[in-house]
Design brief:
Radius of gyration: 21 Å
Shape: globular
CATH superfamily of the largest domain: FAD/NAD(P)-binding domain
Largest sheet: 5 strands, parallel
Helix content: 25-40%
Number of strands: 25
Distance between the termini: 24 Å
Bound molecules: flavin-adenine dinucleotide
Length: about 375
């Protein structure tokens, strides 16, 4: 018996579980270790904030997928690992040994410079916590009648959340002021200039204020680099991602930011019995950005490669496409599309996004074992 351990119920592992369900080798014991019984689909989070989706529509139950793969589910977080001893350590102190390991644990939100905000701080990740705390904030704002919200970070997640939150608060009758803190590198870094212009024009029409400077947290809100204070009742942190700190002592080869270095097969460059996909891995000089698109697209390749090593078959490379399609929700049923230099916007883009997102979730929720 070979022990295959999957750590994290992330997007790539969804494909791994469905592949194992239909192509499971006889001599393998499968374990998924992840803290929550559901995987949250972040692509639908802005639509959930806006009130377009129920929470259940944005979540994928992991137990049926694990059952289909005839594996076991351990609801715990990994807090440490020793790649030389082929072992991961769980939050409850247990150790789980593996012959083959696959990691899809995503990232954490870097909030160290906002910690002084205390209870006013709401990081986007972990998503489980965000899904619990946002409705509480919305209810509190409704009672108060007003909310001054600051969103720090203007990548795809930051702008979508800022626009969705503004829309939801206005719809709930709350008098709202939203400040988006974009830093000097601007909004939607990495997207084409035309996409950035579309977003800025949209946010301007929506009455959002955008600041192009860095900020630090204060007990009252945030303090911009030029000394201007912004008082806020709530600060949502959609700031840069951070690799899980416990990887530092794992003995795996990591890049300078602490992400797992993998080759084109998504295999660790230091430990050939370890694979990684999604935001937690790094493939320098390939243009592989940290995004759900790559976590999803690398999934079937990761699945093939895990099955290949279990059956001594050749590996397959994941070749990221030069451009990825991003569909950015704007609050109401309206979205901006970004694909390399091409862009578009409108209600039809939102319906396109809605169709893609619902189809993705359905692929895993409608999953049945024969
Ligand atoms: C609001 C928002 C909007 C976004 N929009 C887009 C978009 O339009 N397009 C796009 O491409 N990307 C988008 N992203 C980014 C996208 O969500 C991430 O890139 C994607 O989720 C990464 O997938 P992943 O599988 O690597 O990790 P995740 O989806 O984060 O999954 C990680 C899994 O590992 C589990 N886990 C975490 N820590 C541990 C641990 N220690 N032990 C065990 N399990 C653990 C988690 O519970 C989770 O199940 C958005 C993100 C946000 C927040």
């Amino acid at each position: 018996m070979k022990r295959l351990v999957l750590v994290g119920g992330g997007h790539a592992h969804l494909s791994v579980l469905t592949a194992l369900a239909v192509r499971r080798p006889a001599n393998v014991e499968i374990t998924l270790i992840t803290p929550s019984p559901q995987q949250n689909y972040s692509g639908m989070l802005p639509g959930w904030i806006s009130g377009h989706y129920k929470l259940s529509a944005c979540q994928i139950d992991l137990q049926p997928l694990v059952n289909a793969a005839r594996g076991q589910l351990i609801l715990e977080s990994v807090v440490g690992m020793d790649a030389t001893r082929h072992c991961v350590c769980l939050g409850d102190g247990r150790h789980v040994h593996y012959d083959w390991l696959s990691m899809d644990v995503g990232t954490e939100t870097e909030t160290s410079w906002l910690e002084t905000l205390g209870t006013k701080l709401l990081p986007v990740k972990p998503l489980d916590l965000f899904f619990t705390r946002w409705p509480e904030q919305l209810t509190a704002a409704q009672k108060r009648g007003s909310l001054h919200l600051a969103v720090v970070g203007a990548g795809a997640a930051g702008v979508e959340i800022a626009l969705a939150a503004q829309f939801a608060l206005q719809r709930a009758g709350v008098q709202v002021q939203v400040d988006l803190i974009a830093s000097e590198s601007g909004v939607l870094k990495g997207h084409h200039r035309r996409v950035q212009e579309r977003l800025l024009a949209y946010a301007g029409r929506a009455g959002m204020t955008i600041h192009f400077q860095r900020a630090v947290g204060t007990p009252e809100g945030v303090l911009l680099a030029d000394g201007q204070p912004i008082a806020a009742d709530l600060v949502i942190a959609a700031t840069g991602a951070r690799a899980p700190v416990w990887l530092q002592l794992s003995k795996l080869a990591l890049d300078t930011d602490g992400y797992i270095l993998v080759d084109k097969y998504h295999r660790s460059v230091s430990h050939p019995n370890v694979f990684a996909a999604g935001d937690v891995c790094a493939r320098p000089n390939t243009g592989l950005s940290r995004s759900g698109v790559h976590a999803v697209h690398a999934g079937p390749v990761l699945a093939d490669n895990l099955l290949a090593v279990l059956q001594s078959a050749p590996l397959r490379a994941y070749l990221p496409r030069p451009h990825s399609l991003y569909l950015l929700a704007c609050g109401p049923r309206y979205a901006i599309a970004s694909w390399g230099p091409w862009s578009a916007e409108g209600a039809w883009v939102w319906h396109w996004k809605d169709w893609i997102d619902r189809r993705f979730v359905r692929r895993f929720t409608a999953y049945k074992v024969d």
